[in-house]
Design goal:
alpha/beta; Lysozyme-like; five-stranded mixed β-sheet; 22% helix; 5 strands; 273 residues
């Protein structure tokens, strides 16, 4: 089975003090995905460019719809909606020893994910040394728990099922929605897929929104501070090793102008300590 390993070499020389192992980006795995299956995935998910890790220029894009009746999958009754009652059954936890997120109050992965990680596409995270902040570059207006769940599941399905990715799980370890709620993404046992060639030891945090065009909400910034400071204390990560995506050797504007400015002011002020 394919792993999150890249199908192309990195040409940028690693900067001093940064992780140097190959990052776990996905192979296309065309050989083990029949053409009919690839067509089904693309029809269900749409062709989505997640600008948060590629570019933030241009208008925000909408996430594709799930490739199944989301209401039926969650135990609801109306087509095209997301059930919020207790009838929805979360996905089972991944195999192996459980990992309690070191971010108090974070919503566990099982609260939103409708599928389990693909273990043989994942690599160990290793000793945690860095934190990287992202946006998804999508104009997000989800102001409810159900809306955030839907967005998270669509990201997960795109990352896992789309033939251009085929990753083992959603690419980020933590996600902060517009209400400031922190969600657990990929387990901290595994490398993320969020900074090309710099994923070992690097925790990825994504904020929902396009911060070239939007501003992060105050609640969202509070959730970001809580997440980063909790991780920094748990793993003794200094402020200088809290970065944004654009601060790595990457051709990207992520996490957008407005969030970038905030991070640049928050670090010297000690807001992430």
């Amino acid at each position: 089975m394919p792993t999150d390993q890249p199908m192309y070499p990195d040409t940028a020389a690693p900067a001093a003090g940064r992780p140097t192992s190959p990052d776990p980006h996905a192979a296309r795995a065309q050989a083990d995905v029949p053409a009919s299956r690839r067509a089904f995935i693309r029809a269900g998910l749409g062709v989505l460019l997640l600008g948060g890790c590629a570019t933030t220029r241009g208008p925000g894009r909408s996430l594709p719809s799930p490739a199944w009746d989301s209401t039926a999958a969650r135990g609801g009754t109306g087509a095209g909606t997301v059930a919020t009652s207790g009838s929805w059954s979360p996905a089972p936890a991944p195999p192996g020893p459980s990992t309690v997120p070191p971010v108090p109050g974070a919503m566990p992965r099982t609260a939103w994910a409708l599928g389990t990680p693909v273990a043989d596409r994942l690599l160990p995270l290793g000793a945690i040394s860095h934190i990287t902040i992202h946006h998804d570059a999508l104009l997000c207006h989800a102001e409810s728990e159900a809306g955030s769940r839907e967005i998270l599941e669509r990201h997960r399905r795109y990352h896992v099922l789309d033939a251009s990715h085929r990753w083992g799980d959603i690419g980020y370890h933590f996600i902060v929605d517009r209400r400031g709620v922190v969600w657990e993404g990929r387990s901290l046992r595994y490398q993320g897929a969020h900074v090309k060639n710099y994923n070992p030891g690097n925790v990825g945090i994504m904020l929902m929104g396009n911060f070239e065009q939007q501003r992060p909400s105050e609640a969202q910034l509070a959730g970001l501070r809580h997440t980063v400071s909790s991780l920094a204390r748990a793993y003794r990560i200094p402020q200088r090793q809290v970065r944004t995506h654009r601060e790595w050797p990457s051709a990207t504007a992520c996490p957008g102008l407005h969030l970038q400015r905030y991070v640049e002011s928050a670090r010297p002020a000690g807001h992430f300590a």
